[in-house]
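Sharing a chain and its predicted structure for anyone who wants a worked example. Both blocks are below, sequence first, tokens second.
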Amino acid sequence: VVKAPSRKEAIQKMLTALEGTIIVGIKTNIPLHLNILSNSDFIKGNYDIQFVEKFLKKKTTEKEKT
């Protein structure tokens, strides 16, 4: 959890915190959170209750194309 004067600053703070997190021995969902926090729709505030579901579906579709 981070606190900042603006949404933009809070997102940047969270990205910095996650990028600096080192966890050894287990897989984490940090890469997922980094991707979400870097998503243009999320940054603009264009999201709803189904955002993560749509985001994951889009990522899966993109992965299948490669």
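Comments welcome. The mean pLDDT is 95.
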